Amino acid sequence: MAGPSSEDAAFSTAVADIAPAFANKAGATPARVDPWCRAFAWGAMLAGSIIPMIYGRFADENQYAMPIAQVLVLVIAAVIFSRLSRLRRLSAFLLTIAILRLGWSVIAPALGDWLPVQNLINNLDWGPKIFVTRLLNVAGALLMLITFIGRHVTRDDLFLRIGQLNAPVKPERILWFRSPLRWWHLGPLILVIFAMAMTAFLFTHLRPDFWQLSQQWQLFPWAVATAALNAANEEFQFRCVPLAHLRDVLPLREAVWLTAVFFGLAHYFGQPSGWLGVMMATIAGFIWAKSMVETRGAGWAFGMHMAQDIVIFYFLAMSVKN
Predict the structure, then answer these.
(1) Fewer CB in a 10 Å sphere around the end CB: N or C, the chain?
(2) SS3 category, 61
(3) Residues with Cβ within 8 Å of residue 308, at least 6 apart in sequence
(4) Taking Cα atoms as reference points, which of 247, 249, 248 lies closest to residue 289?
(5) Strand stretches in the chain, DSSP E
(6) Other C-beta atoms within 10 Å of 75: how many?
């Protein structure tokens, strides 16, 4: 058998350099994982995701009671952990989960219920109305800046750059390829696969009226603006910030999976929805977080996420009953 080519050898070297390069820029992966930190990290994520799923089925007019209670418990836990040497490194992540819950389940809905905002939204056409409702969720992203107080967090830690779009892809068991591949080739392929899967899911669940599509092209600027806003907001809140705060808590690959599961569970009542939607969003979250880590930037994650949201936007538009 022929030996590896020089190109394959160069690719393997580049893949091997991913983790050290990331460690130099975004904090070293902990040499030894504290089992208590691991348990509390996964426990806080799962509790913060599953309790809202259960509560959402039985919520009455007092829809803010459970989210506020969760936020208070997480904040108290974060304060207590910040005083304990063994668990101190986990406090910022707990605060991140608390702010995520506060932003998405309390602040954004409360702003939406505020009479001046309601009057504004009611007087808007469908496209700008969807944009404004997504804009309300940005409040949580702004609040997340609190989690950086007293901590040295850089743009590299948060992946707030485009990144190396042609970086090598580290092989994974759940991915189908074994030959050398780069993100410049995998990214567009994943984008097409996700778009097809999302189209099939939304067609089944929303039953859109495709005859409306010819009338919806005027919504394209709003589709792009809404998708860009939502993608940037969710990437920052569900991946950039949690990954930055988990870099000293869990191994990098485990942190990627934790954020992926977190993102998936958050979509139970979203689009895609239900348990199939949770599975689809978890896979997407894993691919997007993996792209961040390996390219050391959010370029591919943002682009793939934005494309998905444009598909969702148009399916929702075609499902509106006139």
Answers:
(1) N
(2) coil
(3) 194, 195, 198, 227, 231, 284
(4) 247
(5) none
(6) 17
Q: Are 246 and 93 spatial neighbours (Cβ–Cβ below 8 Å)?
A: yes
Q: What is the DSSP letter of 297?
A: S
Q: How far apart are CA 301 and CA 114, in angstroms?
A: 33
Residue with tokens 């190396």: 164
Q: State the Cα–Cα distance between residues 273 and 155, nearest whole angstrom.
A: 32
Q: What is the pLDDT of residues 187-232, one digit of tens each?
A: 999 999 999 999 999 988 887 777 766 667 788 899 999 999 999 9
Do the beta carbons of residue 126 and residue 216 sit within 8 Å? no
Residue 137: which residues within 8 A CB-CB, separation 6 or more? Answer: 103, 104, 108, 230, 233
Long-range contacts of residues 58-65, Cβ cutoff 8 Å, at least 24 apart: 63/109, 64/105, 64/106, 64/109, 64/110
Residues 309, 313, 316, 318, CA torsion sign? negative
Whether the per-residue pLDDT at 44 is higher than 60: the answer is yes
Neighbour-count burial of 197, counting CB atoms closer than 10 A to its CB (0-12 exposed, 13-18 middle, 19+ buried): middle
182 forms bridges with which residues in the sheet? 168
| Residue 158 predicted with pLDDT over 50 | yes
